[in-house]
Amino acid sequence: MTSTKLLLPRRVGGLKEGPVMCFMAGWPDDERSFEVFEEAFGSEFKTLSVCLPGFSATLKQEVPRWGYSLDSVTQMLRDTVVAEVGGDEKVVLVCHDWGSYFGLDYCQKFPVSKFVSLDVGVYSPFEHGLKAVFLDVLYKGCLACGFALRALGLPSVGALLVGLFPWRTLGPCPFETAVPPRAKEFFTPQGFDVATCYPYFRLFTKILSSPFSGDNWPAYPRGIPTLFLYGKNKRVMFHSAAFLRTIDAEPGSAHKAYDCGHFIQAQQPHQAIADIKAFLSVTSLSPAAP
Fold first, then answer.
1. Which long-range contacts (CB under 8 A, 24 or more apart) does 277-285 make?
2. Would you state the pLDDT for residue 212?
């Protein structure tokens, strides 16, 4: 008896054969998030753009009642890479937001040649003070509760909870000057879907089930050259100073801060593309910004 593996929503482009660059979007984004990047790297790489299951505007996937487990999404990413490019290929992984969470996890388990993370790294909000902890737990908790209400048969109440959250005054990223297409559509009556909040619900249940575990957030991908690009204009930073220090100590790795918000791929795409190309060509970026 054979089972069909669930693959992530995806689009494939660039070279028919050659090195592979895989882009993974986060919440509430879809596989269109890195369109400009696909075009920029398509002459040098076979490109594979994916998003989380249930997030695509073009490929409809019903989110299970309690959502997908975080480990299962990492495995889906692996199965999608294998299905499209083969299992032995060491990919260049470029990720954003929740995509970075799964990218970090992927780096611990599967072959990766280089890793690029946009705006989310290894972090603890406690490092940034009580205000950051409050804001971080508040918005994540709102999204988790919205999904929990959906799972309990109250999707309209869950959607109302998330929709009425004061994102401008208490949200982590109120200074966004541009966002990818799906993120823009998400906060409209036609595009909103509380089912996509399952990563936050799953993160909370993972932490609550094992509060003192050291693996509630993926670790730094040691041995893999890593480029971390992040925006400075946010209420909450999604990385720690220790994460930046680890990058500084790792050969071939670098970090750089941009004068923008969370969605770097929409606000600083050309600068990010130039920095990624520099990183891929010389495996370093100097100087590393604080």
1. 277/40, 279/114, 279/116, 279/225, 279/227, 279/254, 280/92, 280/114, 283/114, 283/225, 283/251, 283/252, 284/252, 284/253, 284/254, 285/227, 285/254, 285/255, 285/256
2. 64
Q: Which residues contact 44 (CB under 8 A, 6 or more apart)?
A: 14, 15, 18, 19
Tens digits of residue pLDDT in 48-97: 999 999 999 888 899 999 999 999 999 999 999 999 988 777 899 999 99
Alpha-carbon distance of 22 to 46, in angstroms, equals 8
* Contacts within 8 Å (CB) and 24+ apart, 270-277: 270/36, 272/37, 272/118, 272/229, 273/36, 273/37, 273/40, 273/41, 275/227, 275/229, 276/37, 276/41, 276/94, 276/116, 276/227, 277/40
Per the confidence metrics, is the pTM higher than 0.90? Answer: yes
Give the model's confidence band at 3: pLDDT under 50 very low, under 70 low, under 90 confident, else very high.
low
Average pLDDT, the chain: 91
User: What 3 state SS string does 10-79 have?
Assistant: EEEEECCCCCEEEEECCCCCCCCCCHHHHHHHCCCCEEEEECCCCCCCCCCCCCCCCCCCHHHHHHHHHH
pLDDT of residue 126: 73
Structure token digits, residue 59: 């490929």
Question: What three-state secondary structure class fits 264?
Answer: helix
Is pLDDT at 149 greater than 50 in this prediction?
A: yes
Q: Which residue in 281, 249, 287 sits closest to 92, CA to CA?
A: 281
CA–chain centroid gap for 130, Å, is 25
Q: If we measure between CA atoms, which residue out of 203, 197, 190 comes closest to residue 165?
A: 197
DSSP state of 261: -
Question: CB of 50 within 8 A of CB of 24?
Answer: yes
Q: Per residue in 237-267, pLDDT tens?
A: 999 999 999 999 999 999 999 999 999 999 9
